[in-house]
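Quiz preparation item.
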């Protein structure tokens, strides 16, 4: 009987240790999965980062610059850095591979529409002064 009692106690201890191991591993797995999901969504975002761009035929001071795009929650924020300073984008919208936004340049509204494909971005800006072609390359990446 003493041997049976020892066997039962050993089985209970083994079961207790197995339950403890499962409880310890479950939160680690959940955190690991959450981290992987968050990281992959950031890496998969085609717009987030810094883009060096040029604008064909634009006035001096606006021919080249840096476009910085960040994502906060479900929305995007755009900052355009030119030789003349920094301009924040308004009405930022994303549809598929295209991002569009408005900026105010010297008192006039400029509508910008850009399409991202890999590490390049192309599109145009439209204002009362006309339309200009924009080309850029990703120079700052979240990858």
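Solution:
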């Amino acid at each position: 009987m003493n041997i049976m009692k020892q066997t039962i106690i050993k089985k209970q201890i083994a079961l207790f240790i197995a339950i403890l191991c499962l409880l310890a591993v479950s939160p680690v797995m959940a955190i690991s999965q959450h981290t992987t999901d968050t990281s992959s969504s950031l890496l998969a975002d085609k717009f987030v980062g810094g883009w060096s761009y040029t604008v064909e035929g634009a006035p001096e001071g606006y021919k080249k610059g840096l476009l910085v795009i960040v994502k906060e929650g479900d929305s995007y924020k755009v900052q355009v850095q030119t030789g003349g300073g920094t301009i924040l984008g308004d009405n930022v919208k994303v549809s598929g591979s295209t991002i569009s936004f408005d900026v105010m340049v010297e008192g006039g509204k400029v509508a910008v529409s850009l399409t991202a494909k890999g590490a390049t971005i192309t599109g145009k800006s439209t204002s009362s002064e006309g339309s200009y072609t924009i080309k850029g390359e990703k120079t700052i990446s979240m990858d």
